[in-house]
What we know:
Elements: H1 2-20, E1 37-43, E2 52-59, E3 80-85, E4 97-105, E5 111-119, E6 128-131, E7 135-137
Parallel strand pairs: 1-7
Antiparallel strand pairs: 1-3, 2-4, 4-5, 5-6
Amino acid sequence: MKKIALLLLAGISILSCKKNKSTSDCGTKMCTYQFVSVAIKFADNKGAAAEVKNFGIVNQRTGEKIQASSSASISTVKGFYTVVDDGNIQSLSEKGDDLKITGTSVETNQTKSVIVKVSGGKCACHINKISGPEQVAFD
């Protein structure tokens, strides 16, 4: 009786997998459950984390302002900011978009900008940082 129950359960599982298999314009693919984000650090001229005001991100392709969708977009650690995360995947192109990141030092009032290229798109499982600095240093 246990063997029959196990076989029945295995059969239902296999049928469920086939039924739930996602096929679309992107084809069938397996994605992980991890949640990817891209962050940047603002630092002073000694490399210590710097507090920033007027933090902003603009997608250079679309001209739209971007805000990371996760609650981690609010800097909980001085100087570290989430640029984009998997919640922004649909607003990014598959080839990658140049994101202009700008911040102003609270201490020196100096404004710095950098470009970080990140890809996404409707067929991507996760965002992917292609190029750009990990840190923005104030003079």
